[in-house]
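Kindly review both lines to help learners:
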Amino acid sequence: MISRRINSLSSSRDAFDAAKGYYGDALSQSGYPNNSMEYAPDDGSARKSKRTRKRKILWFNPPFSTTVESQVSHKFLCLVDKHFPRTHKLHKIINRNTVKVSYSCMANVEAVIKSHNKKLLQKRNEQVQTTTRDTGCNCRVKESCPMNGKCLTKAVVYKATLDTGSQSFSYIGMTEGTFKKRFNGHESSFRLEKYKGATKLSEKIWSLKERGQDYRVSWSIVRRGHPYRNGQKNCDLCTSEKLEILLRSHDPNLLNSRSEMLAKCRHKRKFLL
């Protein structure tokens, strides 16, 4: 046993011979004079492979309640012993080693009522938003509204059409807030040179300005979506925008770049800790 231990710890014959003398003297002083230790390197053939198969366990999860005085788990396991004895043909599958019991905690009445009320209020809020967001406009001159009286619409995917007279370019964008706020951001990038690289649309407009070419921009709503809510897997607005860009990818006059298809959702940031 000592020889096997030294072999397993030694990296070479020299290391084994250096340690063999010390252990041999200790065994002789302890009353074991006949201790022959030979160097036998381990080639790995004698090792036994570990068993990696996991046991298949069937779980029984009764709901926990403080008002129940009966020992549900004990009675259940007694039923397993009674109906599946060793002589039963299914005892190998259903026994105390393969069937386990664990209580599950269900939502209380308060949590159930809150969840139900939240669903009802959410549906009502969505209905109110769909009926009111189409009629919003706070432009002083209604005829100059960029969205024909719908500039306060929220959570939309919009399209900007840039017409130069000889060519027509299109740009797809989206906003979680009102379109009016996003429109003002576009106007700032068209007017101030320091923001000319804000979007591909502003870059194109500034290139037209440098050449002294006239242009006209018109706006329209392409698709509506829902803003990202905490806990959702995907953002409906970002997915809708990427879908509209993908549908127009064959258009050579589309100003959006391909890198926008790989952009991460910016609406999730406000929910991060």
